[in-house]
Amino acid sequence: MTSSPLIIADREIRSRLFVGTGKFSSNENMRDALDASGAEIVTVALRRADLTGKHDPYANILEFIDAEKYLLLPNTSGAMNAEEAVRLARLAAAAGLPKWVKLEIHPDPTYLLPDPIETLKAAEILVKEGFTVLPYINADPVLAKRLQEVGVATVMPLGSPIGSNRGIATRDQIRIIIEQATVPVVVDAGIGAPSHAAEAMEMGADAVLVNTAIAIASDPSRMAIAFKHAVNAGREAFELGLPEVLDEASATSPLTGFLG
Amino acid sequence: MTSSPLIIADREIRSRLFVGTGKFSSNENMRDALDASGAEIVTVALRRADLTGKHDPYANILEFIDAEKYLLLPNTSGAMNAEEAVRLARLAAAAGLPKWVKLEIHPDPTYLLPDPIETLKAAEILVKEGFTVLPYINADPVLAKRLQEVGVATVMPLGSPIGSNRGIATRDQIRIIIEQATVPVVVDAGIGAPSHAAEAMEMGADAVLVNTAIAIASDPSRMAIAFKHAVNAGREAFELGLPEVLDEASATSPLTGFLG
Amino acid sequence: MTSSPLIIADREIRSRLFVGTGKFSSNENMRDALDASGAEIVTVALRRADLTGKHDPYANILEFIDAEKYLLLPNTSGAMNAEEAVRLARLAAAAGLPKWVKLEIHPDPTYLLPDPIETLKAAEILVKEGFTVLPYINADPVLAKRLQEVGVATVMPLGSPIGSNRGIATRDQIRIIIEQATVPVVVDAGIGAPSHAAEAMEMGADAVLVNTAIAIASDPSRMAIAFKHAVNAGREAFELGLPEVLDEASATSPLTGFLG
Amino acid sequence: MTSSPLIIADREIRSRLFVGTGKFSSNENMRDALDASGAEIVTVALRRADLTGKHDPYANILEFIDAEKYLLLPNTSGAMNAEEAVRLARLAAAAGLPKWVKLEIHPDPTYLLPDPIETLKAAEILVKEGFTVLPYINADPVLAKRLQEVGVATVMPLGSPIGSNRGIATRDQIRIIIEQATVPVVVDAGIGAPSHAAEAMEMGADAVLVNTAIAIASDPSRMAIAFKHAVNAGREAFELGLPEVLDEASATSPLTGFLG
């Protein structure tokens, strides 16, 4: 395919499918699924890492993620506020990880929804410290704008709660975010089926992040390929332009002919 | 991919994407798009053919559809009742076309919705005459059953009106048709985006038919590839099993860690 | 309210809410709910009646439905085909019930979806015999037209399966039925909440039939009143004309003022 | 009806329908519609008022809103940030209006979506100054919680953009807000039809605010009554408990009988 490239913070990213590394049944399964997905950007939860210096950070999981092949995107999942998120990001950088961070601050354990106030606060601090910041947010167009004003590299609005597989329930708001965005829009969370991923891309999202649906599939590698194809298909359709949605039918076969 | 095969009337069909041949801007574009789509089953409206014997039937369009490569599926689009549809099918067979017929009877010019009574009547006649009958129907589970009882080879419920690009508006009813089907279910009409095609496949449809969205795309061949990928992705997801849709979130990253 | 009247078969009906009599926990509850609903048309399943002559037909249930106040609409629920439905209707008429019949033919025990072929067949017979026929149908616009052509008094498309409370899942098709109808359209089945009833009326349905949601409510009479109000509200909105649905916002408050 | 009372900041409010005063074609129409609606809480944009002291604030519009009968709720519509909103609220209080304020801060002129950061900031200030604060917010459950923590009297999440009449497009998020709320939840914006209002109430919202759909109706008073009934119907249904939504049908009429 000849799709236009995705560029984030001046880096050209070869795949519009980002993959998360939680919930896989084994590191081997994860490694194979990442490979099959074609993803370049791979998220890892910092809370899963030992950043204390007592152990080699990421020792185990890093053996399975080739840093030459993937852009490792640490996320601050588990942080309850800006302070915790900033601390996690700094520790990760100090431990030698790339200064890219997926900013996730969700104080609510039931729905894991992001905190808009703390997210903006942490984004301001981290951008000033030279981080490339990709914040996970509710589908809030005004918040998306404010984050763009402080210099984030993307916005990552949720389709529906993390791991819920409910798809793009926030359709109307995501449409507005895309329309107004000055940075790439990555739809994150809730994408539970290839059709959800394709829909996000057809709406004009620049990328999607998928984790649960791949990680817990009976065959994560095959599911990763399915998502890769769906993302490409949706992107192609967006670039080519989808036909107008009509109220009436429009005959595909001419209704008059020369049948004798 | 290693998806299970699609079998219709004892014939193994290599692609779950069927493509219609109306609305292309040129026969060359159509030929290339068919090739790119990977489709095996290709529908052609009989009303577009000269079946009178005065001219070589399908002379022109057939130059562009390789009969070795594709299963040409004549459709009776334009027929207002069973009698007209049966006559069209017989003429096609007499002209040497395969005895497969996509049965389309839609008396209503605005929405092109199929007539359940005439469709069942025509199906009964054509099945008895040895045709392989693939009827286009409203998403009516009881009608689908009755058609199966008279021996149709598939049922082809509509997602939404032909050419409307509204997607799977009849979701609930199609789910029931699939659940109760004893023949392959092909979702036809209204599929205006790759995500629609993927959704139909994820629901368990055996195939989809796409025409308008490919034919009128700025680049029909690229759009055909997009649909091919979406159909494969949706089928894979169906075969692998999609994750449960939840009301709440489900953390992908463990929320407690050993961060010091 | 000054809504335009609903006229079915030349009879002016005072309420656009029809109520079914199944599933009530007691006949007293049913009687009170019917009274509270303001309904004029009340359906009763013929299968529940003793029409054999051995017992007084409807003896018990009729003590609770005042024939002066309500138009009793016998339904053929439980009939598996046209023959059974016709027989039920004739027995009811012979037993002195009004020659109005809600035609319900659903061979499928899981979804209770109506059979389009048998329904049309029975409608033709019963119309010729002088019955006022109100058929329960799938949301199939072509079938609706054909029934109108044989002389039915209304069409009663389903919103979703009986008792499922899923609301107007067949929205797109019902919109077409209403647009093309020459008789009143009564949305039947699946209406599980006042908002569903209001929506049907806002779309231009002439009436709705509600049973389960009222009958199994903790207080059927209060729920009946809620549905009555929702039906009236939806009808009013339809008659007054609803505002256009916009993609953008439209300020309700002027955004410039003379604030100093 | 015997619905449980709505209490906001210790005041019992007699109606769960709030009405806005923008867009009416005349003050007389507005007055009559307010009366017909049964509303107690009525919002007025401060930007429309002369609060400079040069003129009698609200002179004109106040002649049409009986302060004995209605609780006048000034709103800060038009404010671009917290500072402007706070200034407007203070001016209103200084001019003798009640210290209740509907906090609206929307910097974006196209979609009029609220700013979460500025809204929280202004709410903190105004609550400390003794205002009863009712903030208009995106359907963001975490923001709703944070506002509750600073002491707002309600939260007012949007269904869809102001004046768009798109209904409850933010359904999933509003459901979470309601589930977690410690103050009344008032669904605001986008409610364009009685069915939308009923749905919000059925979901458990404590009240709804309607403006455009009433103000621009061909007969605002009749439309106000329609919304009043829809709100009551939805609330009743919520209090009585709605029936479960099922995947299958559930017969309302017994399918076996003693018909001979």
From TrEMBL, chains A, B, C, D:
Reaction catalyzed: [ThiS sulfur-carrier protein]-C-terminal-Gly-aminoethanethioate + 2-iminoacetate + 1-deoxy-D-xylulose 5-phosphate = [ThiS sulfur-carrier protein]-C-terminal Gly-Gly + 2-[(2R,5Z)-2-carboxy-4-methylthiazol-5(2H)-ylidene]ethyl phosphate + 2 H2O + H(+)
GO CC terms in record: cytoplasm
Residue span, Thiazole synthase ThiG domain: 8-254
Keywords, sorted A to Z: Cytoplasm, Schiff base, Thiamine biosynthesis, Transferase
Enzyme Commission number(s) of this protein: 2.8.1.10
Active site: K102
Residues where 1-deoxy-D-xylulose 5-phosphate binds: G163, A189, G190, N211, T212
Keyword field contains Protease: no
Listed GO biological process terms: thiamine diphosphate biosynthetic process
Top-level division of the source organism's lineage: Bacteria
Main location: cytoplasm
Involved pathway(s): Cofactor biosynthesis; thiamine diphosphate biosynthesis
GO molecular function: thiazole synthase activity
Keyword Cytoplasm: yes
Subcellular location: Cytoplasm
Stated role: Catalyzes the rearrangement of 1-deoxy-D-xylulose 5-phosphate (DXP) to produce the thiazole phosphate moiety of thiamine. Sulfur is provided by the thiocarboxylate moiety of the carrier protein ThiS. In vitro, sulfur can be provided by H(2)S.
Family note: Belongs to the ThiG family.
Protein name in UniProt: Thiazole synthase
Gene source species: Luteolibacter pohnpeiensis
Gene responsible for this protein: thiG
